[in-house]
Amino acid sequence: MDQGTWALELTGTFLSGVAWLCTLAATATSQWLTLSTSLLPTESYELGLWETCVVQELGATQCRPYNSLLGLPPDIRLARALMCTALGSGLLGLLLAVPGLRLVNSCEGPRARGAKRTARILGGVFCLAAGVLGLVPVSYMAHLTVLRFFDESVPDVVPRWEFGNALFCGWAAGLLHLLAGGLLVGSCLFCQGPPHTETIPLQTSMNSLADHSPGTKSEYV
User: What is the pTM of this model?
Assistant: First the structure.
C-alpha cells in the first residue's frame, strides 16, 4: 500500500508540473485561433490573448500586441483573467505538493506527517481548481468559434476563424491538472492508517502504578 501511495504522489506531482507548463504555453502563445484566406494563400493570421500575428509562407511572422485592455472583446478579457488565475492556482498547487511528498525527508514525527498530508490535499485542491479554471476559457472560446463558423447570416466567401494549437494545449493542461489533483487527493485518502497512539515505556508505567498503590509507605512526622 505504501508503494502504491508513493506512486500516486509522485505521478500526481509530475503531472501537475507538466500541466502547469502546458497552461503557460497555452496562455503565452498566439495560436488560439487561426485564419487563412484563398485571396492571400501565402499568409495566415493568428489570434492570441496578448497579440495578433501574420504568418507568411516563407516563415516570417509579424505580431502586434493589443493597444488597449478596455477595447478587447469580452471573451479575450475573460480568457486572460481565467488563464492567469489558473497559472497561479496551478503553481501554488505544485509548490504545496512537492514538500508534501513523503519521499522529501524535511521533518519527522506525527505532526510532520499530518502537515505533509495537509499540504498534499491542498496541492490537489489547487490543481483541481486550476484544471477547471483552465478548461472554462478554452471551451468557451471554442464554443464561440463554432457558432461563428456555422453562422448562416455570414456569406460563405467571408473567411472564418478556426481552432488553433493553443486550444488543444489548454484542453490537455486542464485535463492533466484534474488528473494530478485527483491523484494527490486520492493518495491522502488511501494512506489513512490507524490513529497514532503514544506508547508509554513499561518501566515508567510500572513505577507510576507503584507510586499510586495503597501499600505505598508515606509517613510524615
Answer: 0.79
